[in-house]
Specification:
The complex is a heterodimer of chains A (206) and B (254). Chain A is an alpha/beta fold. Chain A is built from six helices and 14 strands. In chain A, the strands form three sheets. In chain A, strands 2-1-3-4-14-13-12-9 form an eight-stranded mixed beta sheet. Chain A has a four-stranded mixed beta sheet with strand order 6-5-7-11, covered by helices on one side. With 254 residues, chain B is an alpha/beta fold. Chain B has one domain: TIM Barrel, CATH 3.20.20.70. In chain B, helix 6 (155-165) runs parallel beside helix 7 (186-195). The chains are: A alpha/beta (206), B alpha/beta (254).
Chain lengths: 206, 254
C-alpha cells in the first residue's frame, strides 16, 4: 500500500507534527525525500520552518527541487505548502535574496511594522483568517477561531486572484493562496487544534 | 484579529510536575503527560516545559519525556533545561518540540544564541531570563541556575543583546514574583518590551485574568505565561489544572 500523502523531508523543521495529525485523521502518510515514494503518493505536503534560501538549498541538495516541480507542474499533483513551504511557492524572497518555485507571481518580504511596541516580529500566536475567496480547504471551518502563526516574513501576491485568505498584523497580509492544484498557508494547521485538523481533512479529501 | 498567546509554563522535577514560590519550595503537582491531555481539552495556545534542575545537574532535559509530550500535545510547545549545544537543540526539536528555551547558556555563552538562530531559525530559539534584585541592592540583574547565580547583565541590556544575536522571543521571568499570584512585575516587562522589537513573554506572578490583561495593555507584552494560575485553584491552592475558555481569551485583550 502506498501512502496517500508524501510529507517532504528536506531537514527544515518539525515534520513529525504534520504526520501525527494525518495519522489522527486516518490519512496514511510518509515523511520522505524518496522520489519513488513521492511519485506513488496522491498528494504532497511541503512543510518547513526556517530560512528561505536555506530551504531552497536543502531541496536542491536532496535532489527534490526539479522533481517536485515536475510532479506539481506536469503531473498536476495537489500540493499543500505550510509556512516556509508556502513561501517557497513564490517567485522570490528577500530572506537570503533567493528564487522560489515561482508558482505564484509573488514576493516574500519581511513584516514592515510601524508600531514596533505593539506588533513585535516574528508574528507569533493565534490570528483569525478572513476568507477572500471560497475554497475547498476552508469548508466547515470556524475561521474566527483562528490559526497558529510563527513567521517574520509574509507573501505579497501581484495577482490578487491568487489570495484566498488574509490576516491582519498591523496591516492585512495574504496568509492563504491557491492556484489550481497548488495551495499554501502561512499558518500551521497541524498546530491549530480542531480547525486546523479540518483544514488538513479538506485538503486530503478534495 | 491577533490575540496575545496565553501560555502555561510547567516545571519539571524528576520528570514530575512541580511548582515553586520565589524559585523555592517546590511542590509536586502531578503527572506532566496528564496535564498535557487536560491542556489539549482546554485548547491551550502553547505550552512551555522547563526542567529546572537540568543546568544545575549539567544534563539535558529527558528526550524520552519530550517525545511523550510531542505524541500527546495538540498545540505548539517549547522545552528548556540544560541546552548547551547545537546537538542538544537538534535532539529536542527532533523529539517533537517546536521551540527550545535557553537560559543559562545564553548568559554564559551569548554567541551560542547566534549559532543557534543561524542554524535553526530565530523562531525556534526562545531565551528565558530570570530577573531579581541582587542581594542588598536595588538593581535588577539576570540570574541563572534557579536564580542563584547573578550575571553582569541588566534585563534591558541582556534583552537587546539577545535580539541582536537572533533570538526569536524573550521570556522575562521575575524570580521575586514567581508563585505569588500577585501580578506581574509590570515595570520590568514594560522596560524590556520597550527595548526590543521581538516578542516579549511575561512570566512570574500571574494569578488572575486581570493580571494577564495588565501585562499586555500596560506593559506591551506580546504573550503572557503563568505557572501557578493554571495548576492551582482557590485560596488553599488545591491542585486543579485550568485554563480560560476561548471566549474569555477572545474578549480579554480587546
Amino acid at each position: 500500500m502506498h501512502a496517500e500523502v508524501a510529507i517532504i523531508d528536506y531537514s527544515m523543521g518539525n515534520l513529525g507534527s504534520v504526520k501525527k495529525k494525518l495519522d489522527h485523521i486516518g490519512v496514511s502518510s510518509v515523511i520522505t525525500s524518496n522520489h519513488e515514494q513521492i511519485k506513488n503518493s496522491k498528494k504532497i505536503i511541503l512543510p518547513g520552518v526556517g530560512h528561505f534560501a536555506n530551504g531552497v538549498k536543502m531541496l536542491k541538495e536532496k535532489n527534490l527541487w526539479d522533481f517536485i516541480k515536475q510532479e506539481v507542474e506536469q503531473n498536476n499533483k495537489p500540493i499543500l505548502g505550510i509556512c516556509l513551504g508556502m513561501q517557497l511557492m513564490a517567485k522570490h524572497s528577500e530572506e537570503g535574496n533567493e528564487h522560489g518555485f515561482g508558482w505564484f507571481d509573488a514576493e516574500v518580504i519581511k513584516f514592515n511594522i510601524k508600531d514596533k511596541l505593539k506588533y513585535k516580529v516574528p508574528h507569533i500566536g493565534w490570528n483569525s483568517v478572513e476568507i477572500k475567496k471560497q475554497d475547498k480547504i476552508f469548508e466547515n471551518i470556524a475561521m474566527e477561531s483562528g490559526f497558529y502563526f510563527v513567521h517574520a516574513y509574509h507573501i505579497v501576491c501581484n495577482n490578487k486572484n491568487d489570495v484566498i485568505g488574509e490576516s491582519n498584523y498591523e496591516y492585512d497580509f495574504a496568509c492563504a493562496v491557491r492556484k489550481n492544484n497548488i495551495v499554501g498557508v502561512q499558518f500551521h494547521p497541524e498546530k491549530s487544534h480542531e480547525e486546523g485538523e479540518k483544514l488538513l481533512i479538506n485538503f486530503c479529501n478534495s | 484579529m491577533f490575540r496575545p498567546r496565553v501560555i502555561p509554563v510547567l516545571l519539571l522535577k524528576n520528570n514530575g510536575l512541580a511548582k515553586s514560590v520565589n524559585f523555592k519550595d517546590h511542590r509536586y503537582i502531578g503527572d506532566p503527560i496528564n496535564a498535557v491531555k487536560l491542556f489539549n481539552n482546554f485548547k491551550a495556545d502553547e505550552l512551555v516545559f522547563l526542567d529546572i534542575y537540568a543546568s544545575k545537574e549539567k544534563r539535558l532535559v529527558s528526550l524520552d519525556f519530550v517525545k511523550k509530550v510531542g505524541e500527546e500535545a495538540n498545540m505548539p510547545f517549547a522545552v528548556g533545561g540544560g541546552i548547551t549545544s547545537l546537538n542538544d537543540i537538534k535532539a529536542v526539536l527532533n523529539a517533537g518540540a517546536e521551540k527550545v528555551v535557553i537560559n543559562a547558556s545564553a548568559v554564559q555563552n551569548p554567541s551560542f544564541i547566534k549559532e543557534a538562530a543561524n542554524t535553526f531559525g530565530s523562531s525556534t530559539i526562545a531565551v528565558c531570563m530570570d530577573v531579581k534584585k541582587k542581594f542588598l541592592s536595588k538593581e535588577k540583574k539576570v540570574f541563572t541556575i534557579n536564580g542563584s547565580k547573578a550575571s553582569v547583565f541588566s534585563p534591558v541590556d541582556f534583552a537587546k543583546k539577545m535580539e541582536e544575536l537572533g533570538a526569536g522571543e524573550i521570556i522575562v521571568q521575575s524570580v521575586e514574583k514567581d508563585g505569588t499570584m500577585s501580578g506581574y512585575d509590570l515595570e520590568l516587562i514594560k522596560q524590556v518590551s520597550g527595548a526590543v522589537t521581538i516578542p516579549v513573554v511575561a512570566l512570574g506572578g500571574a494569578g488572575t485574568l486581570a493580571h494577564l490583561k495588565q501585562a499586555v495593555i500596560e506593559s506591551n507584552a506580546s504573550a503572557v505565561a503563568a505557572g501557578s494560575m493554571f495548576v492551582y485553584h482557590g485560596p488553599r491552592r488545591a491542585v486543579l489544572v485550568n485554563y480560560p475558555s476561548r471566549q474569555e481569551l477572545n474578549t480579554l485583550f480587546s
